[in-house]
Amino acid sequence: MIQTKKNWKNFTAGTEFPLVDEFYTLQGEGFHFGKAAYFLRIGGCDIGCRWCDTKLSWNPEIHPVVSINKILSNVEKHKAKDIVITGGEPLMYSMDKLCTAMHARGIKTYLETSGAYPLTGKWDWICLSPKQQQPPIGDIYTKANELKVIIYNIEEDIKWAEEMAQKVSQECYLYLQPEWSRREVNTPLVVEYIKKNPKWKLSLQTHKYINIR
C-alpha cells in the first residue's frame, strides 16, 4: 500500500480516506451508463497509466482527509441509492467499513478498480479495469461483474483484453472502451473488432460527450 503521512492508521483501518472529489451525476461508462449515482473518488494510485485523465488523484498527500460519517452525510443529502467508489485505486485502502455503512442505509455499492490490490468490501457490482503494468491479483477475476479494458494501443490492448477475458467468469460482461484522446481513431477499429467478436460490447465515455461530470 502507498505510504502517506496523513492519518495512516485510519486509512488502513478504512475509517477515513483521502478524498479527491465527490459528486452526484450519471454513470457515463460500461454496463450502468445513464444511471444516477453518487461518485466517490479516492486519492492514491501507483499504477501510472500515461493516458490517465485523473492524474490529480495519484498523490493522496494533496487531498483532504474525510471520514465515513462525512461521506454518508453527503450521500444522504442527495438521496442517492447507489454509490460508485473509484480513484485513483480505491483498493489501496480497506473498503470493509465503508461498504458496511452504505449497506446499513440501503445504499448499493459499486467498485471501479484495476484489481492490483487485495479485494476488500462487499460489493453489489465490481467493474474490473485491469492494467498491464500492474495486473490484477487474488480472486478479483472471478468476482468481477464487468470487465472494462481501455484501448489505447489497439493491437496490444486488444490482445491484453482477450487474455483478461479468459480469466473472468462466464457471467462477466465484457467491454472495450476507446481511450478518450484517441477515440476518433480507435473507436471505428474497436467497433469493427466487436462486430467480429460479439462477446464484447462497446463502452463510451458518454459523460464527456454530453459534458457532465
Summarize the structure.
The chain is α/β, with parallel strands linked by helices and 213 residues long.
Overall geometry? globular
Instruction: Record the strand order, biggest sheet.
Output: 3-1-2-4-5-6-7-8-9
Major sheet details: 9 strands, mixed
The strand count comes to 9
CATH homologous superfamily identity: Aldolase class I
Number of domains: 1
Number of helices: 7
Rg (CA only): 17 Å
Spans of at least 5 consecutive residues with low confidence: none
SSE order in H/E notation? Answer: HEEEHEHEEHEHEHEH
Helix percent reads 25-40%
What fraction of the residues are assigned to beta strands by DSSP?
Answer: 15-25%
Q: Say what the CATH topology is.
A: TIM Barrel
Report the top-level CATH class: Alpha Beta
Distance between the termini: 28 Å
> What structural category arises from helix and sheet content?
alpha/beta
- Tell me the CATH architecture: Alpha-Beta Barrel
Quote the average pLDDT.
92
